[in-house]
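In keeping with the milestone schedule agreed at the kick-off meeting, the structural modelling team has produced records for the first pair of proteins. Each record is given below as a sequence line and a structure-token line. The laboratory manager (R.T.) confirmed that both were archived under the project's standard naming scheme.
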Amino acid sequence: MFDVILRQARLPDDTTIDIAITDGKIVAVGEISGEAKRVLTLATDCYLSAGWIDSHVHCYPKSPIYHDEADRIGVDTGVTCVVDAGSTGANDIDDFRELTRDAATEVYALLNIARTGIVTQNELADMTQIDRVGIADAVQRHPGFIVGIKARMSSSVVGQNGIQPLVLAKQIQQDIGGLPLMVHIGNNPPNLDEIADLLTTGDIITHCYNGKPNRILTPEGTLRAAVKNALDRGVRLDVGHGSASFSFEVARAAIAQGILPDSISSDIYCRNRLNGPVYTLAHVMSKFFNVGMTLPQIIDCVTHKAADGLRLQRKGRIAPGYDADFTVFTLRHEALPMADSEGLTEQGDCHLIPLAAIVAGECCLTEEGKKHHVFSV
């Protein structure tokens, strides 16, 4: 007997399946005829996908600059899994890990290559902040929690050090067995061409659609040659919307050329959650209808493609053996304003409304979900 059977789950491609869950894992999909302790039928106006993964957040509560609570940006908004992108370094990762243990949301970390993490805006202006031994020790202490490393490569962060922190980050990456490296891009120096030339298969460029001069598109609107070469080598693109790193214009021009993101992420923390322009991962995802992506493409970028980029085993797919993590959502067709990070506001006509986050088979309704008929028993 199964623990739970989810009946008539409508997927983003409009196909419908049943899903059986036991011990927090998916054990069968398709037409299921067995018995279960609970049988839940999804409402006809709801969709179900694998659990949404936000690949770039800031949720270390003690961070003095970028901080939030994992569940506020996670299950409360339909997100089952968040990846903190460099809030902590080797100094604070133990404390961060302890603070996440009681969260309903699954939390992972990209370790900042600066030992202090982001306690100032220029953590890589002092190269002595980069402690190779400390990073290796932290990764060894927290396998499965630390899923990669993060290097913020913009002028305000690196000061006079230019490309050198990234050169060292690539060496550290080898020290820790080749875990993914996420690289923040922003104002130069260093120039994006220098950054792209150092990246290798599986590395991640975040803030990929920022509107700053040091962006992925040339002034003529074509993809920079160095970035094209990097993508051809298997480098991945992450959105990392944030307060200053997403442009409708850049995203629309890139996507029209087939330069789609591998992962859609929010770069959320308390201030841009409360005051915008981020608000939630769902709000960020909804903006991608405006720039030419379809619902299945958008969902792919917060499920299996996000999981693949950060090597999250058993996440991101609805298949036997995977974790029973799901997001239930609906679509609201209504003209509402949406702003990018450049001050441009557009009308969005289609909005993702998360109703529930199911983590290891346990359901957490969002505030919208509490007002909505989601399941019948």
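The second protein of the pair:
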Amino acid sequence: MKNKWEDKKASFAVIDVRKLTSNFLPMILNKAQQVNLDNGICIIQSFEPKPLYSAMNDLGFEHVTEKISNHEYRAYFYRTEIKKITYESGADMPFKPTAIVNYKAVDDELAGTVVDFWELIWGKEDSAIDLKTKLLLSMSNAIGASRFRQATRELIKAYSLGATVKEFDELFSLFAWNQGIGHFSSEIGPSTVFGVYKQIKKREKEGLDKRNILDEIMETFGDKNPDVNTLYKKKIKCCEKIDEK
């Protein structure tokens, strides 16, 4: 059934992200927050931008997507409600799946396949496992495989969705048990994911609220941190501007 607002979609502001290789999701969400009621925005991508759907829905948008060709999808988002953006809603959850851009650099169809797989795992509407638990499980698997970049991202996302310090305490105790004291001491202890855990624990003891803790963490351990970012950045000398490839 066609939505009444679809007759207006030709007037929507257009953002074409097909050639962008940087993390453009924050830019899209920022522009979306500025869209008034009964107005819309069109995103053009070389694969169906499914990861955007839930985030835009959390901001009060409906959507329809048109496949123009195998390398062009137009997603039209129409705002029917003004919703407050929060970490808990998911719309403002840290670390969107920016690594999908890496697959697009290889092949658009590959990127589309990865998006479908991502949606099956992370966007399943009738999932038997809640999102916070999935993130903690994913974090645990990543630490078990010494993928500390992924583990850091999953820990921060889980914390934004309500994971507690006590849960992290028990998880890191399990890591020492399952991985061994030697591995914990030489690999997990010096890792970025353990650094995030320590900072959260320290700042909560000092009485800082979660939102401010998350802001601090994202400043230190966000996508600006090369040990956490999933997109390639050319190594540069001090004080030189970063150029993205």
